[in-house]
Structure formats: structure tokens, C-alpha cells
Design brief:
globular, six-stranded antiparallel β-sheet, 6 strands, single chain, alpha+beta, 2 helices
Length: about 110
């Protein structure tokens, strides 16, 4: 509906900073991706990266790196486009979707700070 009232939806959204420096240090991403965007607030971390790595390389990087930071891998699901991964660390959660695109891998991350 073009005339739909989106005011309630807009109120629920959390604005954040597109600043990689605010990323919690225990969340594992690539240091030098070919593309990246962030939205980091007091209540949620979202990140997008395109890495010049295969899906398998990105998977290994995340699984090994997150384990080294104390995260427990609690879910793993193969999708038509790639993989969805879920971690838990205490009360915090982190979900990552990996998608293979043109010989690279897109990483979509959402976590609690």
C-alpha cells in the first residue's frame, strides 16, 4: 500500500553508526573486505561485508574465529544461496548469513552488543 502509515515501524528501528571502530572486539569479520557497511547502536550490531574469499574460506574463518572469542556455534543451516550460522555467548546472540556471489562471499551479521 503506497499510503500505508509507517510511523510505528520507523519508531521501532534503531539508528546506529556506520563505524567499524564501534564493532564489539569479540565479533569476527574480515579486516579488509571489498565492500562493507555497519549499523552499530547500543542495542544491536548489524554488519555487511563482501569478502574476496570462497564460501568455505569464509565459513572456516568465522567458525574458528568466533570459537576463539568464546562464542558457541548453536545453529547451522544450509540454504539455497549459502549458509546461516548462529552463535551464543552468555546472554548475547549472533546470526550470520553467508552467500556466495561472483566468486566472493557476502556476510550479513546481526548481533547483540
Amino acid at each position: 500500500q503506497p499510503d500505508a502509515d509507517l510511523s510505528e515501524q520507523k519508531k521501532a528501528r534503531q539508528g546506529g553508526a556506520n563505524d567499524k571502530a564501534l564493532l564489539p572486539p569479540d565479533l569476527v569479520l574480515y579486516a579488509h573486505p571489498s565492500l562493507e557497511a555497519y549499523n552499530i547502536s547500543a542495542t544491536q550490531v548489524t554488519a555487511y561485508q563482501r569478502a574476496t574469499r570462497t564460501l568455505d574460506e569464509a565459513y572456516a574463518h568465522l567458525v574458528d574465529g568466533m570459537a576463539a572469542q568464546g562464542w558457541e556455534l548453536v545453529s547451522e543451516m544450509e540454504t539455497a544461496e549459502g549458509l546461516q550460522l548462529g552463535w551464543r555467548k552468555g546472554e548475547r546472540t549472533c546470526q550470520v548469513e553467508l552467500v556466495a556471489v561472483d566468486g566472493q562471499t557476502e556476510l550479513w551479521l546481526r548481533a547483540t552488543p
